[in-house]
Structures are given as C-alpha cells and as structure tokens.
C-alpha cells in the first residue's frame, strides 16, 4: 500500500484549445476535471495500476468535497483533514503542440491546529504502508520545515519516505534523510544553485543532494529522460514519445511507477520512465493504466556521469 500526503491539493480543470490567443474568445475542443495536487496524482496513478493507495490531504469547502468525491469514484481511499479554508481550484490550458499554460491558485491558509492534525492523521494511517509519498508545495501556514518534521516522524515509525517538493522545503528535509527525493531538472538546478546543461551536470547535482542527506535521487529531465542515483549506482532511462498531449501529472505518474516497482534500482527506474511517457500521451492529468503502458517501450541502463544521453 502506498500512502500519499498532499498538503496543498486542488480541483484541476483542463481545457484543450486550438490555440491560446490573448484577449480573444477561445472555444475549447475538450475539457476534463480531476482531483489535483502532486500526491493526489501519485495516488491516482497507483490506483490506475491496480495497487492499493490511501490519500491524506486537507480539504475544505465545495471544491474540497468535490475532490473527495472524484477520488472516491476512482476507487481511492481518502483520509481527509477538514480545514476552514476552501481547497484551491487550478486551470490548465493545453494546446495541440503540447504547450501547457497553468494558473495555480495559492490555496487556503492552514491554522496551527490544522497543521498538527495533518501530521497526526499521517501517523495514524501510516501503519502497513510500504511507502509514504510526500508531495507538492506547502500551503500558507506551513513553514518550510514542515516536511522535515513529517519525514522525521515517519522514519521514527519505521516508514520509507519519498519526497517530491522543491525550494526551501526540499533543502530543509534533506537533513532528515528521505529515502528518495524526486526533483525535476529545474528543481534540481535550484537545489544546487547553478544551471545544469548536461546529464553529467545533473548527476553531479544528484550526488550533492545525496551528500546532504537524500538516500536516493530520482530526477526527471524532461524529454531527455530520467536519472536515478542511489547506493547501487547511477542509471539513466528514456522512452520515445511521438506526440505530447499534456504533461500535467507526468512526473507524479513517474514517481508512482517507481514506487510500485519497489522504489530502487534500474527496474524501478524503467517503470518510472514508462509511466511518465504514457502519461504525456493522455489528456489533462489523466493517469495511465496498464494498457497505456504496453505501448511505451522504455529502457534504463548504467550511466557514466560524464556523458550526455
């Protein structure tokens, strides 16, 4: 069972349009509404793969109630933490060439009591979880150290932690030694404070995060593929994608694929690559099913840290 924690969930509306012309009336050619937030997307991808998952998240107002209903319809067990503010609503506009424009709302401000209730709920629901995936931005009211506190508590209970966040929240949590962190290329560059021009640069940056506490680093490098650096070595994986329909949730799908395949080594990396590549072929933030994965040949291999793919 994979438990996910999403401190700042959302209700996501995605519109497909012929072109995004500012100041014009645009008629959408397709639309969908999904429960959103990085941890929520991980749960959706895990459930689509037929694996049990439990989503812990703060929910408030009518958008929060709709998020809970949509998750329930997808067979995902929800452990809601009721908050006074309203769950945020996000909008994505997808163009035919794969360009995606996103408008993300800030979300509600959590009170000290709500913050503690979220931590307590994770602790109460975590027994039996193979992994706890802590994902996404922090809402107002949660300090950057909140993830570090969560990782420390979960480790004390014997759980394995996957962390997908960025900025000060990521850096603060490294000291608590999360079992795997999953930055994208931009987040990895931000964590080490310099641009990354090659896969070799990304490998060096991943090694720095390991030196600062991360036990493994799974990095999404966009169209170039994905990189895994852990105790067993350095691996690179890629998959060919003809047409990108939407990249919303692709990184979350990758993390789900990595965790359900064991969360370590080249086999898990290959699963991450396959899930991410399948996700970008789907509309909005739709998560791939096993039938989608069957059309996604992927590979992973040992990677020299000094060469580009």
Automatic annotation (TrEMBL):
InterPro entries: 1-PFruKinase (IPR022463), PfkB_dom (IPR011611), Ribokinase-like (IPR029056), Tagatose/fructose_Pkinase (IPR017583)
Keywords: ATP-binding, Kinase, Nucleotide-binding, Transferase
Stretch list, region Disordered: 282-309
Residues in the signal sequence: none
One Gene Ontology biological process: small molecule metabolic process
Molecular-function GO terms, alphabetical: 1-phosphofructokinase activity; ATP binding
Pfam families (alphabetical): PfkB
Gene Ontology CC annotations of this record: cytosol
Limits of the Carbohydrate kinase PfkB domain: 17-290
Organism superkingdom: Bacteria
Keyword ATP-binding: yes
Biased composition (Low complexity): 294-309
PANTHER family: 1-PHOSPHOFRUCTOKINASE, 1-PHOSPHOFRUCTOKINASE-RELATED
Family membership noted in the UniProt record: Belongs to the carbohydrate kinase PfkB family.
Name listed for the protein in its UniProt record: Phosphofructokinase
Lineage: Bacteria, Bacillati, Actinomycetota, Actinomycetes, Kitasatosporales
């Amino acid at each position: 069972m994979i438990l996910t924690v999403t401190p700042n969930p959302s209700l996501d509306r995605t519109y497909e349009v012929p072109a995004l012309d500012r100041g014009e009336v645009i008629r959408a050619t397709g639309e969908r509404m999904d429960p959103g937030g990085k941890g929520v997307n991980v749960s959706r991808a895990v459930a689509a793969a037929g694996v049990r998952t439990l989503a812990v998240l703060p929910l408030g107002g009518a958008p929060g109630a709709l998020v809970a209903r949509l998750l329930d319809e997808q067979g995902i067990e929800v452990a809601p933490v009721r908050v006074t503010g309203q769950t945020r609503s996000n909008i994505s506009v997808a163009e035919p060439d794969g360009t995606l424009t996103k408008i993300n709302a800030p979300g509600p401000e959590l009170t000290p009591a709500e913050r503690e209730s979220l931590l307590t709920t994770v602790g109460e629901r975590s027994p039996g979880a193979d992994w706890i995936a802590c994902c996404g931005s922090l809402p107002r009211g949660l300090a950057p150290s909140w993830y570090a506190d969560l990782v420390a508590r979960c480790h004390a209970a014997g759980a394995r932690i996957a962390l997908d966040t960025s900025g000060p929240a990521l850096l603060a949590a490294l000291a608590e030694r999360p079992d795997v962190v999953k930055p994208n290329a931009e987040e990895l560059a931000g964590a080490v404070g310099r641009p990354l021009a090659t896969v070799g640069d990304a490998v060096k940056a991943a090694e720095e995060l390991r030196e600062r506490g991360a036990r493994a680093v799974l990095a999404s490098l966009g169209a170039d593929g994905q990189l895994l650096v852990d105790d067993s070595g350095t691996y690179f994986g890629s998959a060919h994608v003809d047409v990108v329909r939407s990249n919303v949730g692709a990184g979350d799908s990758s993390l789900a694929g990595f965790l359900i395949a064991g969360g370590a080594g080249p086999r898990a990396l290959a699963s991450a690559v396959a899930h991410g590549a399948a996700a970008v072929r789907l509309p909005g933030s739709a998560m791939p099913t096993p039938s989608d994965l069957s059309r996604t040949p992927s590979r992973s291999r040992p990677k020299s840290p000094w060469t580009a793919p």
